[in-house]
Design a protein that fits this description.
It comes from Agrococcus sediminis. With about 90 residues, the protein is α/β, with parallel strands linked by helices. It has two helices and seven strands; from the N terminus they run βαββββαββ. The two termini are about 10 Å apart.
Amino acid sequence: MLTLTDNAQAVINGIVANAEAAPTGGIRISQDLEGAGLNVTVAPAPEADDQVVEAAGAKVFLDPSAAVTLDDKVLDASAAPDGRVDFAVGQQG
């Protein structure tokens, strides 16, 4: 299952708070239509078939394809002063 670094947890919590999402909100990661990349959006709640990863209040909703792709990965993130967010995916352990 995908894990989140401390940085990713803080950045995700900030994104969701700035988007004024509901308390059930988080970021949703989905496989793009071509299957070559991932899309990240703010979502008010997970969709019915999403896998939910939660750590330190940060919620990540993974569509079924993204859940398979990210199963053995760790998500890291950083936020720049201008508001730009960069996500990085690495191998666990």
